[in-house]
Amino acid sequence: MKKYKGKIIDSDLEGGCRLFKTEDGRVFQLDGIDSSSCPAEETVVIEGFENKNMMGIAMVGPVLTAKKINRRIK
Questions:
Q1: What is the residue extent of each domain of the chain?
Q2: In this structure, which topology does domain 2-70 adopt according to CATH?
Q3: How many Å apart are CA 58 and CA 46, to the nearest integer?
Q4: Strand locations in 12-62, DSSP E?
Q5: Chain segment 27-66, per-residue pLDDT in tens
Q6: C-alpha triplet 8, 27, 52: angle, nearest 5°
Q7: Residues 13, 25, 40: CA angle, nearest 5 degrees
Q8: What is the pTM for the complete model shown?
């Protein structure tokens, strides 16, 4: 499984949704894990995969199916 480093961001699109912006600027919709325990703008590492067979309602970018979020970044 691939690791993605970036920040959880809150968006006002479609009534509000949480997104993940990687260090290289890619933006993903999150699926598969509850990110509500992560404060917005916190740097995290997400283990997961880009789900090319899924589309989200906010239509802001590809869907990242997350299996694990690591909040303790050094």
A1: 2-70
A2: OB fold (Dihydrolipoamide Acetyltransferase, E2P) (2.40.50)
A3: 20
A4: 17-22, 27-31, 43-51
A5: 998 888 776 777 778 899 999 999 888 877 666 779 999 9
A6: 115
A7: 50
A8: 0.80
